[in-house]
Design goal:
Number of helices: 18
Helix content: 25-40%
Number of strands: 14
Oligomer: single chain
Structural class: alpha/beta
């Protein structure tokens, strides 16, 4: 994803977070035809950067929906990376929480609507609620904000509306990924999208973290310089971690009480974490042609070469696959592993009270000749969709566009610039690296619409055993062809 300019806008817009408007009364917010990106809460007692006020505007006209209730069906697991996308209950003094609260207050005032609490426990609850609503012919939910993997499976049911037909949604605006049109739209149809309304699209972006205390103790070279010079590669990761093993507990057994060079958790390369490594090497799942035929890209000689690198990394002496930690980042913090892939939101959730020092790197490239770093967002992030029983496309479009625009100017700077990069990062270099990670995100049709049966869920088998890649590809490609033919047929019809 070509995000550099977009995130320059985002960081300039960090202005909206605090100082000049902090004393305003939230109840006196007035509707405006432009998005009023003004934070109205008192600043947190925590130190935040000085900012200047910036206003970002959308093209939604002045509308009055006469007190209509807006209901969103939304996944929001408490404490998770997806809990901050749509709604918070009250002001708490946390800059991210309060930016979301103030956004919803301002948008509700602007359009004269009441935004109802949307959060449900999990993505299956949201999925079932939407299906039941459509089957009953109801229009309870104006917007659906649910897990990407589940949503991409659900849109195949035919219960979802073509977002390309909803007014005001403009994918050329900076609050949408810059490659959204080429990746999410096919044959003028769009069934799901992410925008800056989805904080989890940042929070669940994959990166590489490392225990800086351990790398210092071990005399490992300056990893930030390595990344800047384009030399941070899968081979380099393997070189730095292959022979790392410390019998910390002295029991003579390789167990979780010891330190290893690298971990990918309990099962090695698989699922979205594996896809982040795969896309990091410049690979994609599909090449879709204008006539809506497609080629698989995982059966190429290049993919075979990538697989060999992954086999070597995944099966080296200095790696562990049996960490019982719920997240690989915990293994890094607990000194079980020097390096571990981690989502950016894990720093926000877990690293606040970490007493050690960690660093952040992009996902490693295939080799130094690869033009740029790349990564993806985990399919557990939220995305935006709309059920086919939509009651008022104008209301839905106005809310999606304006809330997304407001988020670019207020919520995302609170999350990225203030929380991740100021409060959480342990050094200036990590701030720089987080920006490289964000700028390196890619969006791809084959991954977006993967559902629960696309290529992502075959990676554990493809990269399990050295020397088996070609045979495994041959074994599963026929099924994957049928899977993606069904998906693309939905866009062709």
């Amino acid at each position: 994803m070509k995000q550099t300019n977009r995130f320059t806008v985002l960081l300039l817009a960090a202005a909206l977070l605090l100082p000049s408007c902090a004393a305003e009364n939230p109840e006196k917010t007035e509707p405006d035809a432009a998005v009023s990106n003004t934070t109205v809460s008192e600043p947190s007692a925590e130190t935040v950067p000085e900012t200047e006020e910036t206003i970002l505007t959308d093209s939604v006209p002045e509308l009055n929906f006469e007190g209509a209730s807006v209901t969103m069906a939304g996944q929001g697991t408490k404490g998770g990376n997806n809990s901050l996308d749509m709604w918070v209950e009250e002001l708490t003094g946390d800059v991210v929480n309060d930016a979301i609260f103030n956004r919803n207050l301002a948008i509700a005032s602007r359009f004269n609507v009441v935004i109802e609490e949307p959060l449900m426990n999990d993505y299956t609850t949201v999925s079932n609620a939407v299906k039941s609503m459509v089957l009953a012919g109801d229009s309870t939910y104006d917007i659906v904000v649910n897990q990407l993997a589940q949503t991409s499976a659900d849109v195949r049911t035919g219960y979802y509306y073509n977002l390309a037909e909803i007014p005001y949604i403009d994918l050329d605006m900076p609050w949408y990924p810059s490659d959204a049109k080429e990746s999410a739209v096919l044959n003028d149809k769009l069934y799901l999208i992410v925008s800056d309304m989805c904080i989890s699209y940042i929070g669940q972006t994959w990166s590489m973290c490392f225990n800086k205390d351990l790398t210092t103790d071990m005399g490992i070279e300056n990893l930030y310089d390595l990344a800047r010079e384009g030399e941070w590669t899968v081979d380099k990761l393997r070189e730095l971690t292959a022979d790392v093993y410390i019998d910390v507990n002295g029991d003579g057994a390789r167990d979780e009480g010891d330190t290893y060079g690298f971990t990918m958790g309990g099962s090695g390369i698989n699922g979205c974490m594996g896809a982040a490594f795969l896309y990091g090497t410049g690979l994609h799942y599909l090449d879709i042609h204008e006539d809506l035929t497609f080629d698989h890209l995982l059966n190429s000689e290049y993919a075979q070469a990538v697989a060999e690198k992954f086999y070597a990394l995944n099966n080296q002496t200095g790696s562990t696959k049996y960490t019982a930690q719920s997240h690989t980042m915990h293994a890094m913090m607990d000194r079980i592993a020097v390096f571990a892939p981690s989502q950016l939101g894990h720093y926000y959730i877990y690293a606040r009270d970490f007493e050690g020092t960690f660093g952040v790197l992009p996902m490693p490239k295939y080799d130094a000749a690869q033009e740029r770093y790349a990564t993806i967002c985990d399919a557990g992030c939220n995305c935006i969709s709309v059920a086919k029983t939509i009651r008022d496309p104008e209301l839905t479009g106005a809310l999606i566009e304006s809330m997304s625009a407001y988020a670019t100017g207020s919520v995302l700077p609170a999350y990225v610039d203030v929380s991740l990069q100021t409060k959480i990062a342990r050094d200036e270099e990590s701030v720089e690296m987080m920006q490289i990670v964000l700028d390196s995100r890619v969006m791809d049709f084959g991954y977006l619409y993967c559902g629960w049966d696309g290529w992502t869920w075959q990676l554990a088998n493809l990269f399990a055993d050295p020397g088996t890649y070609s045979s495994m590809i041959a074994k599963v490609q026929k099924v994957q062809t049928k899977t993606y033919e069904r998906i693309i047929k939905m866009f062709a019809d």
